[in-house]
Design goal:
Layout: H1 19-54, E1 56-61, E2 74-79, E3 84-86, E4 93-96, E5 105-109, E6 116-123, E7 128-132, E8 135-138, E9 141-142, E10 144-147, H2 151-154, E11 161-166, E12 172-176, E13 186-190, E14 195-199, H3 209-212, E15 215-216, E16 220-232, E17 238-239, E18 246-247
Antiparallel strand pairs: 1-2, 2-16, 3-4, 5-6, 5-16, 6-14, 7-8, 7-13, 8-9, 10-11, 11-12, 14-15, 16-17, 16-18
């Protein structure tokens, strides 16, 4: 890039700068800024932002509502083409080729306040969903659970318990906090057509469908597929290198 014109110094014998000279210099400076910075950045933004809005995105997760699958301080990759193609910067669908499956981790707009949330789909349209003392029931059948050791996560909170939930073809770890006040028994409720029931994997510390209601299909942005980066917020943002570029179960 060429240096801006205002960096050139005037010879000591140059005449005093007058108003017309100053205006000419400002015009040259404005032209240089437009040519070297504003125009390239504008063109790049015009290409990148619509692609980011419609094809792929990332979502920062500041809370522990999806532990152990997603830790606080993690940046997750969102596949916005997982289910459909949307008009950039809107929730209007141009085409659909699939629907969220049971067990998918999705990014959605909360019907309560419009905040972007990351949750797991547990109830599909037409399903009956119920919780009894932390155990999830789908269509009258209780899910199976297996012990799952994750001492680095469970040990962070007194009494925390981690188990593997066998949710269809997507087994994954969940965490419960028996000493924390929470809604452990819920429903049964029937999921309406075109809507979904979502939960956080950290069952006793998640603002999910138990509190904000069903999620309309149009509110689902895409599927969270991988952890791009992970920072330990309790240790001054120290990178958790073992979690970089890991898939989300």
């Amino acid at each position: 890039q060429n240096p801006p014109p205002f960096l050139f110094s005037e010879p000591s014998s140059a005449p005093r700068v007058t108003a017309p000279h100053m205006k000419a210099k400002l015009r040259r400076l404005a032209a240089w800024l437009w040519r070297e910075w504003v125009r390239p950045i504008t063109l790049a933004a015009a290409i990148v932002f619509p692609l980011k809005s419609a094809l792929a995105d990332w979502n920062y997760v500041p809370s522990g509502s999806m532990e152990p699958s997603i830790r606080p301080g993690e940046l997750v990759l969102v596949n916005k083409l997982a289910y459909d193609l949307k008009v950039p910067f809107t929730t209007r669908h141009l085409a659909e080729w699939g629907d969220p499956a049971r067990g998918d981790v999705v990014v959605l707009y909360s019907p309560a306040d419009g905040e972007r949330l990351v949750k797991r789909v547990v109830g599909l349209p037409g399903d009956t969903v119920e919780m009894r003392d932390e155990r999830l029931w789908i269509n009258g059948r209780a899910l199976d659970y297996l012990p799952a050791g994750a001492p680095d996560i469970a040990g962070a909170e007194p009494g925390a318990i981690v188990a593997t939930e066998l949710l269809g073809a997507r087994p994954h770890a969940i965490k419960v906090l028996p000493t924390k006040p929470a809604l452990r028994t819920f429903g049964p409720v029937r999921v309406p057509a075109g809507q979904y029931f979502v939960l956080g994997d950290n069952r006793d510390n998640s603002n999910d469908s138990r509190y904000i209601g069903f999620i309309e299909r149009r509110r689902i942005i895409g599927r969270a597929t991988a952890v791009i980066a992970s920072l330990d917020l309790e240790h001054y943002g120290k990178p958790r290198l073992n979690r970089f570029f890991g898939s989300i179960p």
